[in-house]
Amino acid sequence: MKSFSKLLMILIISVLSLSLSPIQKTYGAADGFPVAPPASTLNASDYFTKSQADPKNFPNVSAFSKAYPQALIVTGSRETKSWQIGGMWSKSKIDLNSAFTYDTYHYFGSHPGVDADGMAFVLQNDPLTIGAYGSPGGGLGAYPWSTDGKNNMIKQYIRNALAVEMDNWWNGSGVADDRFDVNYPNTFGVGHLGVVRPGETPLTTKKSEDVGHLQYIQLNKPLSDGKFRHFVVKWTPSVTYQNGVRILGGDLQYYLDDDPTQGSTFHIKNVLDYFKSDKVSYGYTGASGANPTFQAVALIKTPQNAKPVTVKFTDSAGQQIADPVTIPGDPGNSWDASSRRPEWIQYQNNWYQYASKYTADTPDGKDSGQFSATTSYTVTYQYQLRQPPEDFVLQKAVRNDTAGETEFKTETNGQNGDGVTYQLQYTNLTGMGTGSIKDQLDPNTTYTDGSLQIADANTNNEFVTIDDTSFKTNGTIAFPYTIPNGQGFRVRFKAKIDRKDTAETILNKASVGTLFSNQTTIHLPATTGKVIFRYVDRASDMAKPTEIAPEVTVSGDVGKHVSEINADPIRPKAIDGYTVVDQATSSDLTNATFDQASVVDPVISKDDLVVTYRYEKQMLKLTVDPTLDFGQFDNKSVDRTYYIGENQSTTKQPLPFGVTVEDYYGTKGWQLSVQQDGQFKSTPKPNSQDPNLQVAQTLTDATLHLMNPKLKRTDATSNPTWAQEDTMDYQAPVGVFKRYNAHHPDASSKYF
């Protein structure tokens, strides 16, 4: 009964202890795993290889689990040897240019205050690669200055590395190889996380305390709690520039149990300072001293496990001009190929510039998107050859801010008082990395103080204001730093159009050394203009007309009439032997529309005007009424005086009868003579009952007297002063005719 009672008591205590603790399935025979790791589809041996480190005085005990393919064993259990190390290294490297998330579960043992010493997640670029290792015990298989258990100090460490340690032992005793944590809070029985740079000062001393922590995070519960603990590492890259040199940095975040407070973020300013490369291997080290501890890792998600994006660079013919760039990442994370695209590429001693053309096999055809877990993408950027490269070293452009322009161009329009912005872009294509830009403004522009700005790699290509003393003094802008080949910078400054003369353009060029930029032009409204009068022969070929008098150019202020500037008779002019016929204002006379010639008085405008007058040989046109109707009278044969229009009420004959002279301004003076060459005759009336009227009858001794003749101008489009000089000279009858003379001293109109 006693034995039975004792057995019963033991069973009750066992059941009670199970009810007070979380139930975890035990696997005593499964590779030494006390509890099963979380399930995963990953196979650890596909991503890691065992460290090839083979120290002389302590064993490397890492292994892959046969029972759990997703897990790897970092250090062995209590049954294994003491003073051991372990290591597992990735088969592929992480590209620190891209973000990643690494998701795992870690097991640190189940005996707080006894389990030791811990393990570390390590990023490294050690020359020994998978053979890299450090000391056992407090060195966690990564740092130097712990012993091998036989009082031999180990100085070996992992170079070009950064470790996120998960330490379940506080190394703070007075022993030289056990002082790694002496300057930090005592976390005995609980443990801590931290960041350690294994090779920061490892060879300047032989004290473990000088290895030092960059971060030290005290935990709120023991690492060794007999469970697999969720552990996440995240990397967020950031790029800065110093003197034009690209610097890759970023933030490394790590935490336990999905609680960011149980961890921290460590900022890396420049990954090259730590790893000497932007590509690193990742993996685990672990160690024990006198107390061997089973420690393991189960993989849930590896870093940068999406399908990659490949970026290619070709010329216009499709030939590759630079090595492709591979962008890795996590599924669902964003990528942007343009961030990896240089503006200029040098290939076989030639320079190529991005042609603003690309192809992408992404779903939307864009050169950015999200990483896919199943589909890789390719973006190909096209470049164009730039020969000679000197023509593209310095580019200048301008925009009119007052006019609301947003794009920079080589030419624009402006008004007096407008504000403009100039932009200069320098690119080192000729090996000229140092120097200054010289830019002397046109006298018709005034620089706006304090407006000088620069955008370069250091400013993330954002414009920032810089000192403009040198620019105001001598028109120079110093390079911000030594410009690497293929890289450059931009400068901007503002100016105001301050017109001081009648110039119609503001021209500007800049220079760097002996190289000049392109020219920028601001077109201003014209203040003067001109009208050109041409005089050509209408009978000539209008493609190449024959000029019969020199052309006349009238220049003057915009808005004035030609007559205000030149009052000479040039619109048109009188040319001996010629008569002006028509005119046109088209520059292309072969397709011009010609109108009847007239006196014009154009207004001067900013656009030149050409007036072409066409002439023919001198021409006067005389038009005489064919008949004179005196009306109807009785048939008595008597001598008497008859007056034209005497019987107007009967005949309805319009008065007066006259002679029309048309003169196309070609004759300076002319004389009209009217003469009766024969006797008047009646109009035959074949159907008359009177035989005498059936034939024409002559009025014997009849004479025509033109009494009180009057000269009348019928062209009212102009009224020159010389029109008042027209005179008439009437002469008495001589013989059988009467005559009057009408004198016209200078011609430009029609007369009746």
UniProtKB/TrEMBL annotation:
SUPFAM superfamilies per record: Concanavalin A-like lectins/glucanases
Keyword field contains Aminoacyl-tRNA synthetase: no
Signal peptide: 1-26
InterPro entries: ConA-like_dom_sf, Lectin_L-type_dom, MucBP_dom
Keyword entries, A-Z: Repeat, Signal
Entry keyword Signal: yes
Domain MucBP: 308-384, 530-616
Pfam families, sorted: Lectin_L-type_dom, MucBP
Entry protein name: MucBP domain-containing protein
Organism of this sequence: Lacticaseibacillus paracasei (strain ATCC 334 / BCRC 17002 / CCUG 31169 / CIP 107868 / KCTC 3260 / NRRL B-441) (Lactobacillus paracasei)
